[in-house]
Amino acid sequence: MRLKRHHRSMPELQMTAMPDLIFTILFFFMIVTHMRENTVKVEYHQPVGENLVKVTNKAAVINIYVGRAIGGGEYQVQVGNNIVPLAELPQALRNERDGIPADQMEKLSASLLADKEVPMSYINKVKMALRDAKILKVTYTANSKQ
User: Fold this and answer.
1) What 3-state DSSP class applies to 70?
2) Cα separation of 64 and 141, whole Å?
3) In this predicted model, what pLDDT tens digit does every residue of 68-82 receive, in sequence order?
4) What is the reported pTM?
């Protein structure tokens, strides 16, 4: 008795929708990925805090980093991507405030990211510069206690 051999052909995989799928995934990741706006140029270790609240509207937030220069040295203040001397801090804050859209001005606040070793007198000087620049809402950034 002879066995019959069946030659089955494998159906081809349709690849016409593949570019659409790839671009859809690419657009998804472009939309949900958060890009860091500022490059941190000072060393800071965030303090641990209690009763922390998450900032919701980050479009109207000016980030101010306070810490030692990378590699050690004096305390420095960074506004945006620039290291600013303490004497020029109010003017730099006014320039940052002027870059905020007019519809976001009522939500304007400053986020102070300070090293836990910075003396409070230095933080007070930064707060006085914020007051001079008419930025009155200040949030202090800390890590949650865990």
Assistant:
1) coil
2) 10
3) 888 778 889 999 888
4) 0.66
